[in-house]
Design a protein that fits this description.
heterodimer; A: alpha/beta; Immunoglobulin-like; six-stranded mixed beta sheet; five-stranded mixed beta sheet; B: mainly alpha
Chain lengths: 393, 260
């Protein structure tokens, strides 16, 4: 089947045009037929294929090139390299501001937007009530759009787009500004829109929405494709990336602590981990850890295990003395502790486990070792932990 | 140009919008549309007939004022249309950056709105002249329609060229007003080519606006419908300019967003 969207090896440079002389030079190179290959590169060699009926999420940090990619898809800008094909009959873009002109009233902007979307004026007349009802902003439609809140603008924009009955809907971070009830209305609309076999391309920073509405995702990072594929693995590694970034920041802030003690971690391992790779356990599997501590004075130290999310948010911690566990003595100075977390209730994502050495009284933290592990699996549940539950209906 | 330009819904919206913002924004907007050229006309008439005591040998039945008025309104429409559309692309950068649509509709809508408004004023002025005792050749009005249509096309061509160029060279909107003023004085609007030395009058024929104002006077004031090679050259030139400007605009419009 012919894909609805085909993007092949697209790069986009914005020419440097701040200075009049730069503008002139860029214009001269356009005049002589040269494409512009210098300036800020905002997209590099991005390829994407979307077939009809798919729903695609585009995620990435601010400035990763998401909006530029959407502009290329809607034909507002042309690629510096590569090709973009969109074969949709009506492709509607919805973004903050909705392309409205602030000086004009809501109703004027609706007329303009409808015209741009290819709704004829007679068609608009019959649909106007429906649009206003969907937007539900009352008499504000007769006020200039500059007096609107950003949520009202999106309400009106969404209402027109919905009325245009598009084949392809492209949204750029619009659901975030609507209030709760309007968000729900939009999500319901998008879901039924997808059920009718239409195609969605959505830029969002809300992984919740991306996972809810999309089946595939593209992660753009610094204008390049970092990961593309099914929505769950892509969003999970995107989240893990952010969690690690904030954890790295936190680690830098915290000076090394607990390194002054007598009792040291000699060995910390997760059985089942091979080489340097992170241990992967499936959601609901068992996590085992083994900690060997060194005690120079021969007294048995206390071991503390802590599980945390990759960004450092603690999940659970337990020390050997809480449970009155005796260490297994290996020799005069070494003690071994083994722990198993059965049927780990952690939701899919990236986590780490720490093994700490504490003094025999279990008061002072002396040494720390940390290992990462990944919980794999697909789940639409939210949060960190699956709480045991039952539905009473 | 899309053949169904006037059936194009976006174009209609843009024209309505331009008419409303440029002319009907305030209640007096429409009145000013008639008043402003009338006042200017009165100033020129006073300066030239009373102070300079300008004599126009072939001014025709009504003297200086109708001679000036018949040429002045079309020039105003033309010059206003070109000046207004010079920065229309930057002014609508929000629209261009968000929606893919044929951006040539922007300058074309400004020219259309300006002509619609000024032609209404022109018609009113012709009526006033008739009432004041200057015989207007009403057959000439019919003959003037294609001339004005060509003038519209001429304005469209220039507007397309200037508005596209302005995206890349911002100074265009500063250079253009004095250039248009210069053009105004280089065109026999305030004077007649008959008062000029033969040589200069011959050179002035290369200014297409000379043909436009000349033919409008011929048709409306003098009822002179004789045609010559000149009546073929200028329309052809106008069509050529429009076509080249449209190509120029379309060649560069995909890059507008990069420069805005």
């Amino acid at each position: 089947m012919e894909p609805l969207i085909r993007v092949r090896g697209v790069s986009k440079f914005y020419p440097r045009v701040h200075h009049p002389r730069e503008r002139l030079r860029a214009f001269a190179s356009l005049m002589t037929g040269n494409e512009i290959h210098e300036g800020a590169e905002v997209l590099h060699d991005v390829s994407l294929e979307v077939t009809a009926g798919q729903s695609f999420g585009i995620i990435g940090q601010n400035g990763a090139g998401k909006s530029t990619l959407l502009k290329l898809l809607t034909g507002v800008i042309s690629p510096s390299r590569g090709s973009v094909e969109v074969n949709a009959r009506i492709a509607a873009l919805l973004e903050l501001g909705a392309g409205f002109q602030p000086e004009f009233s809501g109703i004027d902007n609706v007329k303009m937007k409808a015209a741009l979307l290819g709704i004829s004026s007679s068609q608009l007349d019959s649909q106007l009530d429906e649009i206003l009802e969907f937007a539900d902003i009352g008499d504000y439609v007769y006020e200039p759009v500059k007096h609107y809140s950003s949520g009202m603008v999106v309400r009106l924009g969404f209402a027109v787009v919905a009325a245009s009955n598009p084949e392809l809907l492209i949204t750029d971070e619009v659901l975030a500004v609507g209030d709760e009830s309007f968000q729900k209305k939009c999500i319901r609309w998008i879901e039924s829109f997808l059920e009718r076999g239409n195609t969605l391309l959505m830029v969002s920073h809300s992984m919740f929405l991306v996972q809810k509405l999309c089946r595939q995702a593209l992660w753009l990072h610094d204008g390049r494709t970092r990961e593309i594929g099914d929505v769950f693995p892509v969003t999970q590694s995107y989240l893990a990336y952010h969690e690690e970034r904030s954890a790295a920041e936190r680690l830098q802030r915290r000076s090394l602590r607990g390194d002054s003690g007598l009792y040291r971690v000699r060995e910390f391992s997760l059985p089942g981990r091979s080489g340097d790779e992170d241990l992967v356990i499936s959601c609901g599997g068992d996590l085992e850890a083994e900690l060997v501590l060194h005690s120079p004075d021969g007294r048995p130290p206390v071991a503390l295990f802590g599980v945390m999310r990759a960004d450092g948010t603690p999940v659970y911690g337990v020390a050997s003395d809480y449970d009155n566990i005796e260490a297994e003595q290996l020799d005069d100075q070494h003690y071994r502790f083994r722990i198993c977390f059965d049927r780990l209730p952690l939701l899919p994502g990236s986590y780490s486990i720490r093994g700490h050495a504490m003094d025999p009284q279990g008061i002072r933290l002396c040494d720390t070792a940390e290992l990462r592990f990944i919980v794999s699996g697909e789940s639409r549940e939210m949060g960190m932990i699956r709480l045991p539950h039952s539905w009473n209906s | 140009m899309p053949v169904n330009l006037f059936a194009n819904n976006v174009f209609r919206q843009l024209v309505t919008r331009a008419v409303r913002t440029e002319y009907l924004e305030n209640l007096t907007g429409f009145a000013w549309l008639i008043l402003q050229p009338l006042i200017l006309l009165a100033v020129y008439a006073f300066v030239f007939t009373t102070i300079f005591k300008a004599r126009i040998p072939d001014a025709g039945p009504g003297g200086f004022v109708p001679y000036l008025a018949v040429a002045f309104w079309p020039w105003t429409a033309f010059s206003e249309a070109v000046l207004r559309s010079s920065n229309v692309i930057s002014a609508n950068s929000a629209l261009i950056g968000k929606v893919a649509f044929p951006s040539e509709l922007l300058p074309l809508s400004i020219v259309t709105a300006t002509f619609l408004m000024n032609m209404a004023g022109y018609l009113a002025v012709l009526f006033v002249l008739q009432l004041m005792g200057t015989p207007i050749h009403w057959l000439g009005v019919a003959a003037a329609v294609p001339v004005l249509a060509l003038l519209f096309l001429f304005a469209c061509g220039l507007a397309l060229f200037v508005s596209a160029l302005q995206v890349f060279i911002r100074d265009v909107s500063q250079i253009l007003p004095p250039l248009m003023t210069f053009w105004f004085f280089m065109t026999p609007i305030l004077y007649s080519p008959a008062i000029l030395p033969q040589k200069i009058a011959a050179v002035m024929k290369f200014n297409p606006m000379t043909w436009y104002v000349g033919r409008l006077r011929d048709f409306l004031l003098f009822g002179n419908f004789q045609l010559s090679w000149y009546d073929l050259a200028v329309p052809l030139l106008t069509l050529l300019l429009f076509w080249v400007s449209l190509l120029f605009f379309r060649r560069f419009s995909p890059h507008f967003e990069d420069f805005l």
